């Protein structure tokens, strides 16, 4: 990766890359069937820990690997070390050996003609041990493969044919805010964002027209640099001078537009299509609209843009709340409508008015469901609109309201309600006493009695 790419963007480029390489096929052969004590071979005690066994194996493997030890018998010694580690690194096979010794790997244990499990050193029960320090086990592999097995790093020796590497740029995330109405109907939003883009003048090569790159003098075109590690062994890493491309661009050959970088800083706009029913927090991915990697293209390096990710943020709505595909609306009702029932008008998200029936005796907090008036689920169906009933508290503001409410309390036998006037039965007793003095007087109705509670007598 080019160091100068960090100037274009404050964050460090860490492209995810993969290699296009032909598969390798290795096989292990032995000329003489034999079996040795794995503990003696590695020089460890029978109660040695897994860590101690691994450390000893690595130490001996470095010493006797045929790539670094040309003495006679080193290859056979290395073969014994490998086979011993294959047994002791597997808990089940180590337990078998501790219990039965070498007989654990004879014919009764499923061995082949060599006396090793499966018939050959390097193979286990049923055809192969699970451990293979060389990524396929062949011709002793090479020393760098052993290093890779223990460090988790891959290495390429400079003598090998270079492999094509593909670098991917970073993803870019932009935030788009939507109203609930826009989320329900779907919309198109224009987004504007900063991007590291491939230079259009040189098509990402970093070269001016007619110029050619030079072979990197540090890695001699291999794209890798060799480092000597403890013990005198070598490890390969990406060349810091050319960023792994194996090529460098001289000042005289640089593209005047991108100054040899192959990429440029740019501002782009994009019409993001938002589908109906999109949810808060959704992430819509637009392929190959993100950053280009901060590295020049070459014969051995290919580049791939990252993606543009549009993250949805829904604004709060003054009337509706969203729950998955349903909408919630809170309807405030007077106590009379809740008691007697009736029809009320409520809004919809589309701006229309809808009348719904309120059953008599509706309780505070009850929910009435209006089907198919929520958020879109697909082109054929929607969620529901749920109307939550909230009964507004009522306080009488005049004498008439007070009288009527007290009369209502009398009619339902509510003796706990606070009163301003006499209960109705006391008014009736007074009327009966007055009526006994004039039997011919007409009988008064309920409303008249209520009025008597309010108006002073003549």
Keywords:
458 residues; alpha+beta; Helix Hairpins; HSP40/DNAj peptide-binding domain; 4 domains; four-stranded mixed β-sheet; three-stranded mixed β-sheet; 11 helices; elongated; disordered N terminus; DnaJ_domain; unfolded protein binding; DnaJ homolog 1, mitochondrial; zinc ion binding; ATP binding
Topology:
Elements: H1 5-8, E1 16-20, H2 38-42, H3 50-64, H4 74-88, H5 91-100, H6 143-151, E2 164-168, E3 172-178, H7 180-185, E4 187-198, E5 214-215, E6 224-228, E7 234-238, E8 247-248, E9 263-274, E10 283-286, E11 301-304, E12 308-314, E13 320-323, E14 326-333, H8 335-340, E15 342-347, E16 353-358, E17 367-370, E18 385-391, H9 399-411, H10 424-436, H11 446-454
Parallel strand pairs: 2-11, 3-12, 14-18
Antiparallel strand pairs: 1-2, 4-9, 5-8, 6-7, 10-12, 13-14, 15-16, 17-18
Helix pairs in contact: 3-4, 9-11, 10-11
